[in-house]
Design goal:
Elements: H1 6-16, E1 20-23, H2 32-42, E2 47-50, E3 60-62, H3 68-75, H4 82-90, E4 97-98, E5 107-110, E6 132-141, E7 148-159, E8 162-164, H5 172-175, E9 185-191, H6 196-201, H7 211-219, E10 224-227, E11 234-236, E12 241-255, E13 270-282, E14 288-289, H8 300-303, H9 305-315, E15 321-326, E16 335-340, H10 347-357, E17 366-371, H11 379-389, H12 392-395, E18 396-403, H13 413-416, E19 421-429, H14 445-453
Parallel strand pairs: 1-2, 3-14, 4-10, 16-17, 17-19
Antiparallel strand pairs: 2-3, 5-13, 6-7, 6-9, 7-8, 8-13, 9-12, 10-11, 12-13, 15-16, 18-19
Length: 470
């Protein structure tokens, strides 16, 4: 178990590790805060705690898990072991437990007092349709099975008591209402929870799996939940802020545009479902935990990617899959590189098809399969494999009419607003006829190992190498 409990202890750990910066000067909510995030992300900066956002006294926390090092700190493991540590832990889900009270309800605001505008919500990018909450863990319950779902969706703040909601047709929040798609249903939005909660909620685990039990497994102890004040749901007791309300699918308001993980605006401005707020509860001194979205790099590159990588390794039954990587350039969603021990010709394509068929691979649009001698986290090595081991007529397959992401900007508008069907590509960049393939040219392994071991004696400064997970 990682040595912390809850968000605030994790922030203390990050500060101790030099991975948290406190921004003490006032920062404007209209794009200045977003611009600071972009600059910091591009330089692999620390998590940021804005202490006076918009001149207000409710801090905003961003970029919390935007590097694999911080993700590894949350799991108590080395960055390159995160996907394996995820699978080791979630093999034993820990269902949450109900408690009588928690700090998330130190302040309770109902009805007209439940005013969303009292929180400093940023307008992140230049063309955003308004202020957005961006790391909102939506907790709902399937009316037929009773199964709980927790997932991350964006929320435009329309007014004091109304939020927008964008969820694609394959999102679990929609699938669990499939028997009555137009009926209102309760929702609770938890923000500023133990970081293992958004880690679990941002990963497409199989439908019907309780993400809060997955979060319990990740933290090594069951989550404590409290009953909501106005809806029949339960939320993490140590959350910073909770918004209770009702999703009204047929009561729509213009939502968007919003700069998404693709680096483009995700979905045109359209009438979308609303959430009518019935209560807001929070700690006496809450922290508003959000995430910047826009052109990579950004937090989605890591927050969603690591868990998806782990789920792919667990869900694919083919042997010899060494590692998988959801790339930064693909926003942690659209592109995957898989390193395999190739069993026979055509095996790379089989692995690619298996990734498309896994629940964690539904949104993947491009798969590159490489041999085990290629580091899937090293973009240069992957490009080298594609350039030198691929014959396009033999090694590339294009599939059509498969489920994709509704906010993929390359889709025609009709598909973005309907079923999000897309074409997909598998690039088999493994060596063809490996026994006769020209060998890789480099010094012998003993020489390389000896030089690495004795590197200090050469007195040559070296930066962080390619392929290493920062």
């Amino acid at each position: 178990m990682a040595g912390f409990t809850g968000l605030r202890e994790f922030l203390a750990l990050l500060e101790q590790e030099g991975e948290l910066a406190r921004v003490g000067v006032p920062v404007a909510l209209d794009q200045e805060l977003g611009a600071v995030c972009v600059h910091s992300l591009r330089h692999a900066g620390p998590a940021l705690l804005f202490q006076q956002p918009g001149g207000q006294d409710i801090p905003i926390l961003v970029n919390l898990l935007a590097t694999r090092r911080r993700y590894g700190l949350a799991l108590g493991c080395a960055p390159d072991q995160a996907q394996h540590e995820w699978n080791r832990r979630v093999a034993r889900p820990l269902p949450p437990v109900l408690v009588e009270r928690g700090p998330c309800q130190e302040v309770v605001l109902r009805g007209d007092d439940a005013d969303l505008t009292r929180f400093p919500v940023p307008t992140w990018n230049a063309l955003d349709g308004g202020p957005y909450l961006t790391l909102s863990c939506h907790i709902t319950r399937d009316p037929a099975s009773g199964a709980r779902n927790a997932a991350i969706y964006r929320n435009q703040v329309h007014d004091r008591r109304t939020l927008g909601l964008l969820a694609g047709p394959f999102a679990h929040i929609m699938l669990q209402r499939r028997a009555a798609p137009n009926e209102p249903f309760p929702v609770a939005i938890a923000m500023g929870t133990d970081p293992r909660v958004p880690m679990a909620a941002s990963v497409p685990v199989p439908f019907g799996t309780d993400e809060l039990a997955v979060a319990g497994a990740l933290r090594g102890a069951p989550l404590e939940l409290v009953r909501c004040q106005t809806v029949p749901l339960e939320v993490p007791a140590d959350a910073e802020v909770v918004i209770e309300g009702e999703v009204r699918p047929t009561e729509r308001r213009e939502e968007g545009p919003f700069g998404e993980y693709t680096g483009h605006y995700g979905g045109p401005r359209l009438p979308r479902p609303t959430i009518h707020v019935t209560a807001v509860t929070h700690r006496r001194d809450p922290i508003l935990h959000l995430a910047y979205q826009g052109a990579p790099p950004h937090e989605t590159d890591v927050l969603t990617a690591v868990g998806k990588e782990a789920e792919l390794l667990r869900q694919i039954s083919l042997p010899g899959v060494r590692a998988v990587h959801y790339t930064e350039g693909g926003g942690g969603v659209l592109h995957v590189v898989a390193a395999v021990d190739k069993a026979y010709e055509g095996y790379g394509k089989m692995v690619g098809m298996a990734i498309f068929g896994a629940p964690a691979g539904r949104s993947v649009k491009q798969v590159v399969v490489v041999d085990a001698d290629v580091d899937p986290f090293d973009a240069l090595a992957v490009e080298w494999a594609i350039a030198t081991r691929v014959q396009p007529h033999r090694d590339i397959e294009i599939l059509r009419e498969l489920p994709g992401s509704s906010i993929d900007p390359s889709l025609p508008l009709a598909e973005q607003t309907r079923s999000a069907r897309t074409s997909k590509i598998v690039i088999d960049a493994t060596r063809y006829d490996a026994a006769s393939f020209p060998p890789v040219c480099q010094p012998a392994a003993e020489a390389l190992d000896r030089v690495e071991r004795d590197w200090a004696r050469y007195e040559i400064p070296v930066a962080l190498g390619r392929g290493r997970q920062r």
